[in-house]
Amino acid sequence: MMAGFRKAKAEQAALKIGMYGPSGSGKTFTALLIAEGLAKITGKRIAFVDTERGTDFYCKTIPERKLHPQAFDFDALYTKSITEVIQSIKGLPSEQYGVIVLDSITHIWEAARLAYDGKETRAGTIPFHAWAKIKKPYKELINLLLSSPMHVIFCGRQGNEFEEDEESGELKKVGVKMKAEGETPYEPHVLLRMEAVKDTKSKLATITVFAEKDRTGILAGQTIIWPTFDNLAKPLLAALGGTQAVIKSDDETSQEDAVSLMEGQKAKESESYNILGKFQARFSLCEDFKQLNDLNNEITPELKKKMTTADVADLKEAYLTKARELKGLS
């Protein structure tokens, strides 16, 4: 049964942050800084999905490292397998873990695509009809992350965005985007683009974050240099509540819709059957064409909409049968 509209309320207890950028823009390090701060607040551990062994030097103390020389403390899963990631995250005990980091979501999407072993087009590409099956486990993972009571940070590589030039027909670069499944950037609460901005004079790079999207409105449109937990994630915590909304999966939603549509169809079939029976009985009692036509005029287009196509055809046949009978009597 549908719940209907009700007063809106915030049900987000954990941050869902997406970040992307080119190589060397500080994605992994920044994700760890944020995760560390969140872990301290929750008093729980960090679960880090590492698809490229990008954390190897961050889990050990390096005195020469100017920022955060001490080792980060986290538990890691080293894999690019989307199925392994899904099962491992499903098995995370929420009383033990407070933060999930996935680096890189780009590899996970590639794993989902590479898992396709069906027929390809003549051009060697994946046929259009196969994409729904390919995206299914990926969407399951995204839904799992968004519904998790744990804070989530996922990092992605940067790709170029192209559009076709209207005059020349050639593809031209119009911007950059997260290199992942096309809907991914829309999913997190906050989407951050990272860049190592080089000073033209000193040639030194400054790690910079551009807040491309922030549903809380706290960081929206801001540019943050040398991002840390304190200037990036901490300001967002005030927007969180105590309850985490669970988003239904596509499978759950489609099953509910199928059941609802089936029940609606059964109800229509039942009503249609009753209408047909009533008019068949009344047609049989008609004694002349005036009675027959008056009764037939009661069958309006609105009434037919309540009936199945088959029952409308049977109703017409009942009318014609009675008309032939009356004609034979006249």
From TrEMBL:
Coiled coil: none
Signal sequence segment: none
Domain AAA+ ATPase residues, every copy: 13-251
InterPro entries: AAA+_ATPase (IPR003593), P-loop_NTPase (IPR027417)
Name used for this protein in its record: Putative ATPase domain containing protein
Organism of derivation: viral metagenome
